[in-house]
Automatic annotation (TrEMBL):
Species of the source: Rasiella rasia
Domain Aldehyde dehydrogenase: from-to ranges: 15-423
This protein's record includes keyword Calcium: no
GO CC, one annotated term: cytoplasm
GO molecular function per UniProt: aldehyde dehydrogenase (NAD+) activity
Alphabetized UniProt keyword annotations: NAD, Oxidoreductase
Protein name: Aldehyde dehydrogenase
PROSITE patterns per record: ALDEHYDE_DEHYDR_CYS, ALDEHYDE_DEHYDR_GLU
GO BP term (any one): aldehyde metabolic process
Tagged with keyword Protein transport: no
Amino acid sequence: METHLAIQRTFFNTQATKDISFRIAQLDKLNKLLKDNEQLLYDAIYKDFKKSEFDTYTSELSLIYHDIKDAKNNLKSWARNERKPTNIINWPASSYVQKDPLGVCLIIGAWNYPYQLSFAPAVAALAAGNTVILKPSELPLNTSNVMAKLVNGAFNPEIFKVVEGGVPETTELLAQNFDKIFFTGSTKVGKIVYQAAAKNLIPVTLELGGKSPAFITKDCNLKMTAKRLVWAKFLNAGQTCIAPDYVLVDKCIENEFLQAVTAEIEKEQFSFHNHNYVQIINNANFERLKAMIPDQKVFFGGETKASDRYIAPTILHNITFEDACMQEEIFGPILPVISYDNLDDAIVEVQKFPKALSAYVFTSSSSIRKKVFNTLSFGGGMVNDAVMHITNSNLPFGGVGNSGIGSYHGEAGFNCFSHRKSIIKKGTWLELPLKYFPHSSSRLKWIKRFLKL
């Protein structure tokens, strides 16, 4: 691991990556590499957890292609120096902010969207002029293998290198003195990454998770709410960091809501055979999720099959905040439904959880929307939809508190991997003597006049 880092640092210090055309060339290479090998990528991820070509393209590859295109189209403007006003005590001068790449970056990807959550931050890092060591998750082994094969076969290891492995390899990587660490995964592991980075004062971005609530009010469009909520929750079999984790529904429409959601699930016919559903990633997660399903509280679904790592889309009702499914992030195809009589009381209960990565409100009331969004702290969210905010690269994506540190996507991603260096360029044709020795009461009076404090 020391060798990988040393090779990249030596190359970074040549200043080659600071050239915009060099960065665009790396993005072009990655774009072509992925497009030329799409079938390999589809085959690998299907072997890992039966993710279809349709879902792999729409929820992973298309987002990467968009990020590359967005970066190429905007890179010159993102990298341009930003002019800033100069205060009077520095006059005559001009001030600006210069965007510098941080250096050698470690990116640790996640297993649930193994391509998108590995390559999207890598695109941002390369666009910002950094070199990248990428450590994909080892859980989807075939996708990790194909990423290593493609990247290491096409890129100079001085610029972009994939390192495979599990906990020992990741631990060794975290012991190195990188210039930036970007991690996507659980809050538990995020804390380990943060502690490791602190030893060398390495800046980090942590994209984590949490229990993201969805509020359903009595004045919502119930049919559209059910359609969008079911898609967002059961996409990737619920293994999505920004999926609605649980629902809070106004008690006066609870029964209608449950029926509408059930009808939508039946209509979609989620299954591997229909290529619109995936397996639970491994046996450990399968058993963890199975234990969250109390038979007496299943409104719909609940079927499991260990040999296929299959858990049917499941709706739980009569749930309280004390139930087992409310004690941790679910990260699976289980949707607890909690009814409320008073929205303010429901918001208070949600505030007892750590800050979520996302929050959703299905309502036609602007006052309710404002109340929820102004009261709760969370990473990002939507009104009358869920999950789709991740597709807008004009919005920074990230968490707050336990759900993450920092953000990326679009220009926010470029800034995530850049240092904003402040510069003042002074003229030499004039210099006021006020700050120099000897100090005097008259000079102090003039300084106070200039500063107007």
